[in-house]
TrEMBL record:
Residues 1-198 form the Flavodoxin-like fold domain. Keywords: Flavoprotein, FMN, NAD, Oxidoreductase. Quinone reductase that provides resistance to thiol-specific stress caused by electrophilic quinones. Also exhibits azoreductase activity. Catalyzes the reductive cleavage of the azo bond in aromatic azo compounds to the corresponding amines. The keyword Transcription regulation does not apply. Belongs to the azoreductase type 1 family. This is FMN dependent NADH:quinone oxidoreductase. It comes from Hansschlegelia zhihuaiae. Homodimer. It is an enzyme of class 1 (oxidoreductase). SUPFAM superfamilies: Flavoproteins. The lineage of its organism: Bacteria, Pseudomonadati, Pseudomonadota, Alphaproteobacteria, Hyphomicrobiales. GO terms for molecular function: electron transfer activity; FMN binding; oxidoreductase activity, acting on NAD(P)H as acceptor; oxidoreductase activity, acting on NAD(P)H, quinone or similar compound as acceptor. Its EC number is 1.6.5.-, 1.7.1.17. It holds the Pfam family Flavodoxin_2. The gene is azoR. It catalyses: N,N-dimethyl-1,4-phenylenediamine + anthranilate + 2 NAD(+) = 2-(4-dimethylaminophenyl)diazenylbenzoate + 2 NADH + 2 H(+); 2 a quinone + NADH + H(+) = 2 a 1,4-benzosemiquinone + NAD(+).
Amino acid sequence: MKLLHVDASILGENSVSRTVSAAAVERLKAEIPGVEVVRRDLATAPIAHLSGAHLAALAPGAEASAQVRVENEEGGRALQEFLEAEIVVIGAPMYNFAVPSQLKAWIDRVLVAGKTFGYGDDGRPVGLAGDKRVVIAISRGGFYGSDTPMAAFEHVQSYLKAVFAFVGVANVEFLIAEGVLAGPGLREKALDVALGEAAHLKAA
């Protein structure tokens, strides 16, 4: 069994989402003997943002610069890692109400027609990656729960839930550290809650 571990935070060892995603991976490794972990750090090794040149280069017989070819090859490796993984653990901090651009670049390489989604005879999208388990560690500086005044500004959990539903993963598990910058002691409290949830992850 393969587990793909993806992180997007630019904060390194100071990152809450990285701490929680790492704890989730360690818990699942303990629960699932022999699991193979594939690591992708989108902050230290970012994937190029998708451009018209990248798309044009995918056409049969198209010419492209060496840089575009290399970047498309890396995007292809990211897609293959996702396709081969049975479990995906993602560290996703909230930056300005949304996911980091590094994570969006990865998503743009993973949501590929004919690979992770398609369209039925009626024109409706059909997810092709529904046999995966996805666990997402989210960190948020403030409070953005459905019962808070800032709920309408939350575009990380809602976006990622939609992204994975689109490719067929209906039940995404979220480990959320909320309010980590909202006041003294709240970072530690939020981290304890999320780490506690990570510690209870099961093999299935």
